[in-house]
Each structure stands twice: as C-alpha cells, then as structure tokens.
Amino acid sequence: MKVSDFEFELPEHLIAKYPAAERTASRLMHLDVARGSINHYHFSDLPSLLTPADLMIFNNTRVIPARLFGAKDTGGRVEILIERVLDESRALVQMRSSKSPKPGSRVSLENSSYQLEVIEKRNSFYVMVFPDPGVMAIANELGHMPLPPYIDRADEVADQARYQTVYAQRDGAVAAPTAGLHFDEALLAKLAEMGVQRSEVTLHVGAGTFQPVRVEDVEDHQMHSEWLEVSASTCDDILRCKTSDAPGRVVSVGTTSVRSLETAAVSGQLAPYVGDTDIFIYPGYQFRVVDAMITNFHLSGSTLLMLVSAFAGTELIREAYAEAIRESYRFFSYGDAMLITR
C-alpha cells in the first residue's frame, strides 16, 4: 500500500477553525459498512443509532496547556510544545527555533523568571528540566492550549473549555481526543437513561499524532509512542457486553480509544494494560475488540485515515469522504463526526 492511496484534496474552507456553537450541533455521518450506506444526521441524533445493549468506551485523558513561549540566551525566539511529562521536573518537548538547541542551553519563558534547560536530544525531541514548582505548575501558569497546526490561529480563552472533553480527568494529553468533543453532559445523561453502558480508558495523545507520514510505503511507517491504560474493570465491562444474553456492541469514541483497546488485546485476548503503545492499524488489520466507532474526519494521508480505512474499507471511506466534501462537512479537530458501524 502507498500513502498516496489515502490522500485527497480538501478545500481550505472546510477546515474547522472554531467549534460549532454547541457541542452536539455538529453534523454526524453514519457509515453502515454492512449495507454500504451513508446517511446524514446531527450529533444530537446519536441515541437513535445506538441500543441499550451497547457499551461506549471514552478516553478520559485531559489536555494540558502544553505550548510555551520564550527566548534563548542569544535572544532568539523559541516555541516549546510539551510532548510528554516524564516526571515532576522533566518533560519531553518539541522546540521551534531558528537553530537547533544544544544540551546545556537555556530558555527563558516569557512573562516569568523561569529558565528551562535542555539536557538531552532524543530523535526529534528534547528533554528539558523545569525549575520549581515543576512541569505541570509552570504549564498551568504560563501555557497555552496546544491547538493543532491546521487551526491557523492563536488559542483563545474559549479553547480552554472547548478543546477539552466534558469528561476529561487525567492530565497528560497534548492533543484532544476529538471525537469526544461532541458530547455534552445532557447527551451523556440521555444515553445513560436509555441504558447505554459506559466505560473509560486513558491514552495521553501526543503531538506526534499530527506528524506527516514521510515514507512512500505504508508498512514502512514507524508510529510515535503514547502512554495508555486499560483497566481490569473496563475489560470486565467489555466481556459482559459481548457475552450477555443480548450482546451489544463495543462502540469506541475516537481512534485513541480504538488504539487503546486493540493494544490491550494484541496477544489475542483482551487483558488489562498499562504502558506505551506504538500500534499501527492500517488496512488488513483484524480488529479484536471494537465493533463500532465514532470519529472525526481526518487529515489526508494520515495514520488516522488509515485506521478508519482498516475498519470500514478503503473504498467506502474514500466514498464517504468525497460525500462529506460535497455536503460541506467540517473537517478535523473542531469539525463534524462520523459513526462507523459494521
């Protein structure tokens, strides 16, 4: 397979720079793989497409204010994006500056007296030491919400809430699990009232999710690593869903939940899992856990587009994306959603 098999042309005006006025006001495309059909709804219609036997899996990661600005000792401007918090005082970061920093160099953060030190380079990332009061305290004090590069604007106050799911709990992501942005408390309550079950995983989304695929052959791509946890209670919930007298579907909210569950079942049987994953799901992959998924519309040539193509079939996804463009769906993080059932 070639990366070019997953590329498409997207008009610039279909890239969502801001979220819909209300979370559930986004549009929802239903892609029924078994029937090969495409139908159009609003996200508020989701309950009509689910059953009380279904189990929804949400990623409860919380986006941290991971973008920091400062200057090198030489005066050059620096932009820092935290990729992963390593411990209380160290973080793995991406750095944007005129010249690559060397170990021992320092960055003074704007509007503060804090100085960060580069101590190591790891591939395209850097390990930086943060002074007291530590990584998270400094990020919370000075950091900006890390909007994706295709949202070509500075972050605003409203992004602090809207680029975060309403059920976010565990700090660590530097990009939102965007399929979850369409849920509000009222919709979650409605789903609970109709009997839809709910369970959670944690996958701290890294900035590497936006890195382009730089190889020609899909199989040659190396995925970035992300930390996740699938608990024993979530595994038990899934087992009950699949083995009850009236089995339901495991409905994964977002590709991060898909990658979490499929990592936990990589041995062939679902089991609790804590640690890193670099699982790469592309056409030909046999899904072990997920029966349906909710996802946004993804970047051309991206690994996320390859994942949904593995789930629904490359041709059907290509047809659905062409339909979405014709119907002026909004794309990417703040855009519209798709429910894929099969």
* Helix proportion: 10-25%
Architecture (CATH level 2) name of the largest domain? 3-Layer(aba) Sandwich
CATH topology of the largest domain: QueA-like
Parts with pLDDT < 50 across at least 5 consecutive residues: none
What is Rg?
20 Å
Mean pLDDT: 96
Highest CATH level, the class of the largest domain = Alpha Beta
Strands, total number = 17
Describe what this molecule looks like in 3D.
- The relative contact order is 0.21.
- This protein is 19% helix and 27% strand.
- It is globular, with a radius of gyration of 20 Å.
- The chain has 342 residues and is of the alpha/beta class.
- The two termini are 23 Å apart.
- The strands form three sheets. Strands 2-1-17-16-14-3-12-13-15 form a nine-stranded mixed sheet, with helices on one face. Strands 5-6-7-10-9-8 form a six-stranded antiparallel beta barrel. Strands 4-11 form a two-stranded parallel sheet.
- The chain has two domains: 3-63 and 160-341, QueA-like, CATH 3.40.1780; 67-142, Thrombin, subunit H, CATH 2.40.10.
- It has helices at residues 135-142, 159-162, 185-193, 232-243, 255-264, 303-312, 314-326; strands at residues 27-32, 37-42, 55-59, 61-63, 67-72, 77-85, 90-96, 106-109, 115-122, 125-129, 170-173, 197-203, 226-230, 250-253, 273-277, 292-296, 337-341.
